[in-house]
Amino acid sequence: MSQHNNNSFKNMSLKEKTATVIGMTLLTILIAGFVLGIYFFGFAGVFELLGVQYQSIWSLVIFVVSFFVLGFLIDLPFEAMSKLSVEKLTGNIAAFLVELFFGFASNWIALVTVDVFVGSIELSLEAKLIISLLLAVLEPVFDSKNEKNEKVA
Fold first, then answer.
1. In degrees, to the nearest 5, what angle opens at C-alpha 54 toward C-alphas 48 and 56?
2. Gyration radius (Cα) of the chain, Å
3. What is the maximal distance between C-alpha atoms in the chain?
4. In whole angstroms, what is the distance from residue 135 CA to residue 71 CA?
5. Is 121 helix (H, G, I), strand (E, B) or coil?
6. Hey, what long-range contacts does 14-18 have (CB within 8 A, 24 or more apart)?
7. pTM > 0.90
8. pLDDT of res. 24
9. How far apart are CA 141 and CA 26, in angstroms?
10. Domain chopping of the chain, boundaries
11. pLDDT digits (tens, 9 = 90+) for 73-99
12. Cβ(74)–Cβ(110) under 8 Å?
């Protein structure tokens, strides 16, 4: 085992490079599809519980994809503001409440915007409040688990 087998991308043939790029692309599509699927079924379940009506499955798909994309774009500045605000806080409860506020605000903005532009689904004020609060409560819970796992590793 004195020779080191280095299979870097630069040393691959054209066929191997093509297979690698296609494989990575399919893996990325699979992961994105899984995440969007979780969002889709989550929203379908919450809409069912809250009695929100939608015209078709495709209108729900458009709503979920729009919320996912817009929510990601809105979360970028809100997440930065949340992390900067929490950095100076010493108490866990105060930090959680600040993260909850920023999460609620970003989810509220995304929901209201998507609700305005997707006419086939109309959310009541109560539904928007419940969904925004539910998402805001779940985000720090999952983030704190990831941060604890990263600190251990």
1. 115
2. 21
3. 69
4. 11
5. strand
6. none
7. no
8. 93
9. 30
10. 9-144
11. 999 999 999 889 888 888 888 888 888
12. yes
| pLDDT 10s digits, 129-144 | 999 999 998 887 776 5
Size of the chain, expressed as the number of residues it contains = 153
* Of 131, 120, 115, residue with least CA distance to 56: 120
Q: Token pair of 147, please?
A: 């941060």
**Is there a contact between 106 and 139 (Cβ–Cβ < 8 Å)?**
no
Cα separation, 104 vs 137, in Å, equals 8
Instruction: Answer whether 121's CB lies under 8 Å from 46's CB.
Output: no
Token pair listed for 110: 């995304």
Q: How far apart are CA 49 and CA 89, in angstroms?
A: 36
Q: How many CB atoms lie within 10 A of CB 61?
A: 15
The encoded tokens of residue 5 equal 């087998």
